[in-house]
Amino acid sequence: MSASVASNTICTTSITSSSIDAGKLRTLFPIFSHAADVIYFDNASTTQKPTTVLQAMEKFYNTSCANAGRASYQWSTLASQQIEETRDALAKFINANSENIIFTAGATDSLNTIALAWGLENLQDGDEIMLCPEDHKSAILPWYNVQRILAKQGKNIAIKTFKIHTVGDYDLKTIKEAVSNKTKLLAMSHIHHVYGLDMEVPEIRKIVGDQVIISLDACQSIGHCQIDVKHLNVNFISFSAHKMFGPNGIGALWINPKLTKEIIPFKLGGKANANIDFSAEGSHQLSFDQNNLPSLLEAGTLNIPAIIGWKPAIELIESLGVANIQNHTGYLLKLLYLALKALPGIDFAPGPGVCGCPDGSSIIAFRFEHIPTMDLAFMLDSENIYVRSGDHCMGIAKASEGDAYIRVSLHAYNTEAEVKHFIEVLTQALT
Ligand SMILES: Cc1ncc(COP(=O)(O)O)c(C=O)c1O
Q1: Is the distance from the beta carbon of residue 106 to the nearest atom of ligand 1 less than 6 Å?
Q2: Which has the minimum average pLDDT: 100-104, 125-129, 279-283, 416-420?
Q3: Is residue 228 located within the same domain as residue 301?
Q4: What is the CATH number for 398?
Q5: Whether residue 80 is found in the same domain as residue 101
């Protein structure tokens, strides 16, 4: 077991009951009354949406549909005000300042924004980036893209990789080996999207030192564990609304205030994030106001209804309490783990199944020796049990479809009855 799992926060408590009434919570989500027989266990991929989110979006279209920040009439100023209300709610949620929160099209867009708005401008010939090939492609491919673009300018950027430990968090030894005085940025997950463990930011910060920029992919931690930018000691944080009961097509990027002077927009357009001096005949100068975050990185019309719909999602998570959500999913995961462990031929992926400490986590992945994973996934689908199979968007393909892992990922509205039924169906399939 790595040093980080030994001190992993998700392993330190022993959860014996849940503090969330999942049955009551489900009544707030219309999909569960329309599809009462579906067991939805793919929450790491996307979550279902409560009525409040759907109504907020519909209300915008039905009663005050207008562009924001471009006109002085009432609908437009209302849209601008609502955008800032969601930004403020997000800022409070992660203990940040509103001006450091950029709206993006989702986590993939946020992660590409870091690479293009910071990486392209600040990386120099010989600099090094560190990343883990078993992280999500959205967190690692943007750096290979930057490497490709900078190579055309004669700047060679080395990408050094570090590994996953057999238990499922990062292998700290490989981080120690890869870091050097040329390392400029390390990309990492907060909670791994297949292995489900807290990947231990503090340990990694200690190893790489304060001068290395850490880009944290918080897709799987947002809404599942408390994110406090004042304590995390990272430089960028990316996440999507749709994984926290919010709408699709919207996400956020938090930029540490210390870095704002290093940011140059890569997407230029409407809403004053850049200017051209047309008075200088023949040499029109492009300039940016770097004190103008978040507008600097929000060129063009934002996804206004989705931003408006995100606020009630944040409010729902706040009303449930992130610690209670973590406790609830951790409790269910523990039940799941103990039942799965008893099944013949089970082979757990790294993570809670291997380290045996499922408390507080919401993701577990596994496969069986004698049943191809895809066959099992199709069988579960025929029983209306929705789980994730396939390559899990990992940077490096670890297995083919047949022997890849099934991933079960839980959220606050999943119930003990669903876990029990899932185990019954699985048991039948194996016998
Ligand atoms: C860890 C992680 N990073 C990035 C992403 C990409 O998120 P999105 O598809 O919302 O851009 C996902 C989505 O599954 C993810 O799990």
Answers
A1: yes
A2: 279-283
A3: yes
A4: 3.90.1150.10
A5: yes
CA angle, residues 249, 255, 261, in degrees to nearest 5: 125
What distance in angstroms lies between residue 164's CA and the mean position of ligand 1's atoms? 18
Q: Are 391 and 397 in contact (CB under 8 A)?
A: yes
pLDDT, tens digit, 9 for 90 and up, residues 2-25: 444 444 444 434 666 778 999 999
373, containing H or E segment: helix 373-382
State which ligand 1 atom lies nearest to the alpha carbon of 240: 10
3-class DSSP state for residue 251? Answer: strand
348, 354 contact by CB (below 8 A): yes
Question: CA–CA separation, 366 vs 392, rounded Å?
Answer: 13
Beta-bridge mates of residue 102: 253
* Domain end (from 283, 299, 317): 317
Range list of β-strands (E), 170-209: 183-189
- d(CA 335, CA 16) in angstroms, rounded, equals 10
Task: For residues 47 and 74, state if they share a domain.
Answer: no
Q: Whose CA is nearest to atom 14 of ligand 1?
A: 45
Which residue did the predictor score with more confidence, 10 or 168? 168
pLDDT, tens only, 371-424: 889 999 999 999 999 999 877 787 777 666 667 899 999 999 999 999 999 999
Peptide bond into 202 cis (omega under 30): no
Tell me phi and psi for residue 160, to 5 degrees. Answer: -100, 140
Q: Which of 263, 293, 317 is the last residue of a domain?
A: 317
Strand residues in 14-100 grouped as ranges (E): 39-40
**Is any atom of ligand 1 closer than 6 Å to the C-beta of 189?**
yes
Pick the residue whose CA is nearest to atom 15 on ligand 1. Answer: 219
Atom number, ligand 1, closest to the C-alpha of residue 105: 11
- Beta strand pairing call for 213-217 and 183-189: parallel
Which residue, 162, 213, 222, 161, is CA-closest to 191?
222
Q: Which domain holds residue 325?
A: 3-51+321-430
Tokens 């920040």 locate to 69
pLDDT digits (tens, 9 = 90+) for 317-373: 999 999 999 999 999 999 999 999 999 999 999 999 998 876 668 999 999 988 889
Name the nearest CA neighbour of 414 among 10, 2, 26. Answer: 26
User: Among candidates 76, 89, 170, which has minimal Cα distance to 130?
Assistant: 170
Give per-residue pLDDT as tens, 42-79.
999 999 999 999 999 999 999 999 999 878 999 999 99
